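Section 3.1: Structural characterization of target chains.
Under the original work plan, the team committed to producing a structural model for every single-chain target entering the pipeline before any wet-lab resources were allocated. The record below documents one such target. The sequence was received from the expression subgroup and is listed exactly as submitted; it comprises 166 residues.
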Amino acid sequence: MHDLMPLTIEDKHRIEGFLYEEALCLDEARLDDWMSLYSEDGVYWMPASPAQTCPLTEISILYEDQLLMDIRRRNLGHALSPSMDYPIRGSRIIGNIHLPKTQPNGGAIRVCSTFHAQLYYREETTHFAGKYTHDLVAKAESYSIVRKRVDLINADGVQRNLLIYI
């Protein structure tokens, strides 16, 4: 039995386009544009284990609100930041985009997808894979991210310092 809610073709294209735009912003390290995709109260969450249910009572790899995302964005783009000595390049592939039957309250749309991401920094390539869960709210002809959860397939393994979002 599948736990998926069918999407109309129009909805699917709008959601896919939005997710692809977000991935492109991250691939190109355009964090100003990426942050504009978030609602004012939007959060980015990367749990430290697949079973984690609450970022406020359990340790996470990342749990950032707008203020913390803005600090990371400013640090990454600052001319005096050591991270700017080397380019950060990325490539993300998103697939299996679907709406789960269980949806959040409050008018948001929950969208799940799978991803593979390659990040190149300081002559080293790192591979990430896992599942995205986006809670989106409709905004004119697009969406805003209220919450993005990134479940790495190896979240409970050793993680290196992340300079940019996955």
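The chain has one domain: 4-152.
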